[in-house]
Amino acid sequence: MKKPARPSAPAPLAIWGLHPVLELLRHQPQQITAIFLLKGSKENQGFHQILGLANRHGIAVKQVESLPIPEADNVTHQGVAAAIRPFVPMDLNALLEQLAGKSAPLLVVLDSIQDPHNLGAIIRSAAAAGADGIIMPKDRSAPLSGTVLKASAGTMALTSLCQVTNLAHTLKELKKEGFWIYGAAGEAGQSLYETSFTGPLCIVIGSEGKGLRPLVAEQCDHLIAIPLATGVESLNASVAAGVILFEIVRQRRPAA
Hints:
Shape: elongated
Number of strands: 11
Order of helices and strands: EHEHEEHEHEHEHEEEHEH
CATH topology of the largest domain: Alpha/beta knot
Number of domains: 2
CATH class of the largest domain: Alpha Beta
Radius of gyration: 20 Å
Number of helices: 8
CATH superfamily of the largest domain: SPOUT methyltransferase, trefoil knot domain
Oligomer: single chain
């Protein structure tokens, strides 16, 4: 009787591009197991920075004929890639402990963002706006892949990522902790620009197609909309997240 074939090992997680690799080297070098430079690529300042940081952290750098990542033929890799350990998001309790003592933390909750480019772009906007954490569901979300890392331009290494099982329950817990919950909804009657964002805040961004799920929307204290020109029905999820986050930044910035 033949033994059943062993399942093939999963492909190693990789990132590519100068900025994603550099940011991970700068902020979470322990995530990187090896770096690969494509032979024949034009050397530049980014390459030299990668070599210097890799040497400092004892990370092997290999010159290769082709980059060992499945997506390398279809993406802009700039001649560099890195094999990395999987990212392990924190749980809600760990995130709340991290926020203890902050007077007005800002969190971003993502409800069913399944496009990896959108997820990466939202992570980038959240990091640029100084958000204190991003919460996403374990099931209804794009995995934290190399595509997400590339789209985030390396800022995933700067952001506290949290995964939860039940978003509606998580929002209830955040309200108990004093957070005001604002959900982005194109049909909402309350304008983003007529909303005052003070205190601990949680901004909820819905999926690219259907927006917020009903059970998630029910947990929001307010539903807000971005005013759009006539004939434009909605914005891309990552664009909407950026608009809302930087309106909060504008309001919170001290007057000159």
